Amino acid sequence: MSTIKLADYPTRPPRSTDREEIEKKTRKLIREIADLQELLYANRRYSLLVIFQGMDSSGKDGATHNVFKRCSPSGVSAYSFKKPTKLEMAHDFLWRVHQQVPEKGMIKIFNRSHYEDILIQRVHGWIDEGRVTHRIQSINAFEELLEYDNDTKVLKFYMHLSRERQREKLQERIDERDKNWKHNPNDWEEAKLWDRYMECYEDAINRSSVPWHIVPVDSRWYRDYAIAKVVAETLRSFEMDWPALTES
Prior knowledge:
Shape: globular
CATH superfamily: P-loop containing nucleotide triphosphate hydrolases
Strand content: 5-15%
Order of helices and strands: HEHEHHEHHEHHHEH
Helix content: 40-55%
Largest sheet: 5 strands, parallel
Structural class: alpha/beta
Distance between the termini: 53 Å
Number of strands: 5
CATH class: Alpha Beta
CATH topology: Rossmann fold
Number of helices: 10
């Protein structure tokens, strides 16, 4: 397997991309995802875990809303992993994660995920490299357990944002009143550690047994298309059918 270098991947759409055409395709994909989600819920054989991981302001919330907005709330839910609570810190780092994985027939979206435990903690030196390696092995085993023992497909999206675009989005949180609530001064401090974060993301991606999808997110309209395309293709691959009427 070749080594992935994030610098080799674009953060913007291909130059020849027709925005109007892409947005038309995206709308069609979003409707299809809603139809397939209903079939998934009725079938109750598979489940889907969607992981959005990326730097601050990379569009995890927006992608969650836009791609799944036509789905039934009864079959889709999202969870945002924040600083561990005292109770969560008293357990292994995957304890809180396993409680949030989807049951059969459900789609679950992780806004950030268990990868925080080998990213922010590693960047700040809160864990050593030996612990990093052990956690990566545990994450791989955890995701393989979900996929091969529980028919839970794990889709992992790295939200590939440029440093310049992040600055723009963080500044918007200061300049635009309806985005002030998102502003966190600490985000600017974390942005100063950009190069180290890229190193840690690359290592996590390259040592993952379940592959990542690297999505260019500088243009949000293209981000939604790239994600919706993979989600729709994945749901189609389940080859589900409507459950037959059973005799009482």
